[in-house]
Fold:
Amino acid sequence: MMFELLYWDGLQGRGEFVRLALEEAGATYTDIVREPHGMPAIMNLLQSETEPHPPFAPPILRDGDVLISHVANILMYLGPKLGLAPRDEGARFWANGLQLTITDLVAEAHGTHHPIASGDYYEDQTDAALARSADFRRKRLPKFLGYFERVLTQNPDGNRHCVGNALSYVDLSLFQVVAGLRYAFPRATASLPERSPAVWAVHEAVRARPNIARYLASDRRLAFNETGVFRHYPELDRAD
Amino acid sequence: MMFELLYWDGLQGRGEFVRLALEEAGATYTDIVREPHGMPAIMNLLQSETEPHPPFAPPILRDGDVLISHVANILMYLGPKLGLAPRDEGARFWANGLQLTITDLVAEAHGTHHPIASGDYYEDQTDAALARSADFRRKRLPKFLGYFERVLTQNPDGNRHCVGNALSYVDLSLFQVVAGLRYAFPRATASLPERSPAVWAVHEAVRARPNIARYLASDRRLAFNETGVFRHYPELDRAD
Structure:
């Protein structure tokens, strides 16, 4: 299998959820933006007036003739091919539902620094960002983390995985979202390991997996920064 | 087939995208909240400490032992069962990607009246709502509508459907989002039929389908109102 990932350069962003699945599985893939003429190729696809399945936005996965966009959609497609999804059909929809909850959490994390206009600068919407971040830290973040703690502790197959008794792409994505939240909100998430021990344990277990550890130490893993989804603006972070 | 839909009462909301698919297919389903003890049943499920697959939020579909949440996930599950999804696997992921773009549009429409805190009142976040609505009307709405116009016009099977040459749940959802936007933003969408003729044609064609027309005229179809996703606050709507 030879996959192509089409995503922006310079940030982990939403593309990182796809990269983690490909890296864990040891899949062969090309990060198109880091190839010669990669960026024009992505822009041509986004602006194509003839592509039968035009994508709305990156990340996009190309697998031969198939073009797929939206993180959860890409992971639902890749999961069985990479051995990162359950075999049972019902369990696959459970995994997809969990991934879509992660999608919502990621969108809300992005909203903390862009509550008014995603195309404008953070610096032009700081008042709203302060108010929205307070709501996120105090209400939304505890709700999401409490939910995933329940998902893990209520899993009949044990609390080491979100879905069944094996690693899935949902665990990888949960690792990434926890890592991002710890970067963006170090004070608000300081107590996360104690308050959400099962979520934290998944984060730690994924981080230690050989292929993931190798990836995280490689130059393919970009550092978190203030152009991605998870941004560290100290004024938006409080212990509350 | 006997499905159960678990969703709030008193609003169309995100549940409406599921209802439209069930109604078009003539499926037998129960809208649990409108049954005796429906609301406590939903709350019990949301708060359950034993449910192996706890949902984060409604809408939720129950099909026997299977519980599925998130609109796009429910529709991807229901699509093949209701004859509202393509048979080809690649086309199903195309449909799901389109549905997830609709999901994003719906979330952004909700964000126009709740840019700061989804749990607070609109009246407590009107300044931010005015700013966010302006960005939505001027930039985001044209981008989304222009995208779906391209999806239709670039469809090799013709511009009458989003996916292939047959009705799918994506067409039904596109109808609903256009109906909601026309309700919430009558001035900003006044030119929609002229500017997005293929999108508008899908809206009109879906509205005229016998099962949909019958549903829309029934008391099962609630009116749009200011508790749902699409709310008409005149101050947020401008022709720009």
